[in-house]
Design brief:
The protein has 116 residues and is mainly beta. The protein folds into 2 domains: 2-37, no CATH class; 49-115, OB fold (Dihydrolipoamide Acetyltransferase, E2P). The chain contains 1 helix and 11 strands. Strands 4-11-9-6 form a 4-stranded antiparallel sheet, with no helix packed on it. Strands 8-7-5-10 form a 4-stranded antiparallel sheet, with no helix packed on it. The two termini are 44 Å apart.
């Protein structure tokens, strides 16, 4: 790996050159900014954790801790932007924990339920 500096708009940026990228049997040399090399690897969301996808208010919780659920069963109804949204169980399992209460305001990406 070779270090180089590039000046753009009077700013210095450090880059590292990677020369061993092979795509369809063609070797490419490319420059990747250091900030992109230091990013954490993508971690897939655990399908057992149910998150809210938009801020809103919890209207109804259909399950409790230790309840058995089937795929497609209603878990929670919440209201966001004057629309009711129903979250369904993505798989069969047992409710490990319910992190919210009816009437609670929730933020985007907040965990609601965990299934085991």
């Amino acid at each position: 790996m070779e270090e180089i500096e590039e000046k753009t708009n009077s700013e210095e940026k450090d880059y590292s050159i990677y020369q061993d990228i092979n795509i369809d049997n063609i070797l490419y040399s490319t420059i990747i900014p250091k900030k992109n090399q230091e990013k954490k690897p993508y971690k897939a969301i655990d399908p057992r954790e149910i998150y809210v996808f938009i801020p809103g208010t919890i209207l109804k919780i259909f399950v409790e801790k230790k309840d058995k659920v089937k795929k497609g069963e209603k878990l929670i109804t919440f209201q966001a932007m004057k629309m009711d949204n129903v979250l369904l169980a993505p798989m069969d399992g047992v409710i490990e924990n319910v992190f919210v209460k009816e009437g609670e305001n929730v933020n985007k990406s907040q965990i609601l339920i965990k299934i085991k």
